[in-house]
Design goal:
Elements lengths: L1 E6 L8 H6 L8 H19 L4 E7 L2 E13 L2 E11 L7 E2 L5 E2 H20 L3 E4 L4 H9 L3 E2 L6 E4 L1
Parallel strand pairs: 4-7
Antiparallel strand pairs: 1-2, 2-3, 3-4, 5-6, 7-9, 8-9
The structure holds coenzyme A.
The site of coenzyme A (COA) has 16 residues, from helix 2, strand 4 and helix 4.
Length: 159
């Protein structure tokens, strides 16, 4: 069964990063895998401090990935920020039947867009934003419909 489990400061244990790391494969490049581990540990600490909320996508015993979201502003515009998007290395680049042939990354981004639209109705919100980890990833997100903010490395999706 497909499950998107929400972790906040109220239900996340201090072992959240250990639990996630024990259920996923990281990149097979050493440097990149260390970077991913660092981001996962950091984002789980932020969950405990109420600075981000993490949505873990699971199917049966498989952890497919997660997205971590927080509130921020771009200029004067309230935004929902993607703090980190992570897909289990075993499922990267693969459309999955259980996700209606979407990749886990696309599924999680679409979930964030839907959530942002709900928040927009409740409290006002202009953009979904993210800061790609590096230049190559900018193109990956642009292919998903994100646009460049003028003179910034941030990308945005207008709601
Ligand atoms: C980014 C991510 C969610 C994309 O997942 P995906 O949509 O299933 O796609 P893939 O992993 O196949 O990556 C798509 C392309 O981006 C590239 N890519 C992925 N992660 C990358 C990274 N950290 N740096 C540079 N390129 C990266 C892949 O090599 C691939 O390139 P290709 O199309 O030329 O083969 C996934 O690669 C991931 O979880 N990476 C580790 C965590 C991460 O870097 N998160 C992004 C933070 S901004």
């Amino acid at each position: 069964m497909l499950e998107l489990k929400k972790y906040t400061s109220k239900n996340a244990s201090y072992r959240l990063s250990v639990d996630i790391l024990s259920h996923v494969e990281l990149s097979d490049h050493l440097e990149q895998s260390q970077r991913e581990r660092g981001f996962i540990e950091d984002v789980c600490k932020r969950v405990q401090k109420s600075s981000t909320v993490l949505y873990l996508l699971k199917h049966a015993d498989d952890t497919l990935g997660f997205i971590a979201l927080s509130v921020s502003s771009i200029g004067d515009f309230p935004s929902l920020q993607i703090d980190y998007l992570f897909v289990n290395h075993a499922f990267r680049g693969k459309p999955l039947k259980i996700l209606d042939n979407l990749k886990a990354s696309t599924y999680l981004i679409e979930f964030a867009i839907e959530l942002a639209k709900e928040i927009q109705e409740l409290a006002g919100l202009r953009y979904l934003v993210l800061l790609p980890d590096n230049h190559k990833l900018q193109d990956v997100y642009k292919n998903m419909g994100f646009l460049h903010l003028p003179k910034q490395e941030w990308l945005y999706f207008k709601l």
